[in-house]
Design brief:
By secondary structure, this protein is α/β, with parallel strands linked by helices. It has a domain of 155 residues: TIM Barrel. It contains nine helices and nine strands. The protein has a nine-stranded parallel beta sheet with strand order 7-6-5-4-3-2-1-8-9.
C-alpha cells in the first residue's frame, strides 16, 4: 500500500508526525498503532517475504531504512546489498532514509525514488556528542527533502544546541532528536521547536538509545 502523495503533502504542510520504528520481526505480525509513519529497519529485519507482506498490507505510510554500520546499522550488508534492499521496497515506500555520508553511493536509488515521487530523508547520527549547529549546517545537501540529525545529548547545553539547529537552518525541513536520557526527555521539546519526524519504536526493540515507545510519544505530543 503506497501513500506517497499524502506524505509529500504532510511535509509541504509542515505537519508534525510520529514515526514508529520496527526492528524486530515479531512486531510484523501486529497492526501498527500509535504512530503516523512506520519505519522498517531492513538492516535488522532483513528482506524476507514477511517484511514485504507487512509493507504491502500496512495501512500507514512506510519509511524504508537500510542503515549502514557506521551509523548504527545492524547488518554487514555491502553498499550493493543495501541498494538492492531499498529497491525491492520502493513500490511500498512513502519515504526512504539514507545517511548523508552515503548519498553519492546511493545516487541510483535516490534517482529511482525521486522518479516515483518518494521523498528522501538524509540522516546523520552522532552517538558520542552533539556537534555545533554550524557544523551540522555544513551537511545540508540539495538532494535531500528532510534532514535528520540524531545526536547524543549529555547536558542542558547539548539541548540548547539542538534548539539552535532550527535557528541556523530556518525554513529547512528538519527532524531533530537527542539520544541518551536527556535526549529522550527533550524529544517533545524538539517536536514543538519544529522537528517534523519524531521517532519512537513499535514492539520491543528501540532503534536508538533511550528511545520512546511510539504510542507514548504520540500521546505526549497530543497534550
Amino acid at each position: 500500500m503506497t501513500q506517497q502523495g499524502p506524505m509529500n503533502q504532510h511535509l509541504s504542510d509542515g505537519k508534525r508526525l510520529v514515526v514508529g520504528a520496527i526492528a524486530d520481526s515479531m512486531t510484523l505480525s501486529t497492526t501498527p498503532t500509535g504512530c503516523d509513519v512506520v519505519e522498517l529497519r531492513l538492516d535488522s529485519l532483513g528482506t524476507g517475504e514477511n517484511v514485504h507482506q507487512f509493507a504491502r498490507d500496512c495501512p500507514l505510510p512506510i519509511l524504508v531504512t537500510a542503515r549502514g554500520p557506521e551509523e548504527g546499522g545492524q547488518s554487514d550488508w555491502s553498499i550493493e546489498e543495501r541498494a538492492d534492499a531499498y529497491r525491492s521496497f520502493l513500490p511500498q515506500a512513502s519515504l526512504i532514509d539514507i545517511e548523508l555520508r552515503d548519498l553519492d553511493a546511493f545516487s541510483g536509488v535516490i534517482d529511482e525514488a525521486r522518479s516515483l515521487g518518494i521523498p528522501l530523508i538524509g540522516s546523520f547520527h552522532d552517538f558520542t556528542a552533539t556537534p555545533e549547529p554550524e557544523s551540522l549546517a555544513e551537511k545540508i545537501d540539495s538532494r535531500v527533502d528532510i534532514h535528520k540529525f540524531a545526536l547524543m545529548t549529555q547536558s542542558t547545553k547539548d539541548v540548547i544546541k539542538h534548539l539552535a539547529i532550527f535557528e541556523h537552518l530556518p525554513g529547512r525541513a528538519l527532524s531533530v532528536m537527542g539520544m541518551g536520557p536527556l535526549g529522550a526527555a527533550a524529544r517533545p521539546l524538539m517536536a514543538e521547536a519544529g522537528s517534523l519526524l519524531n521517532y519512537g519504536y513499535l514492539g520491543i526493540t528501540p532503534t536508538a538509545p533511550n528511545q520512546w515507545p511510539a504510542e507514548l510519544l504520540k500521546a505526549t505530543l497530543a497534550i
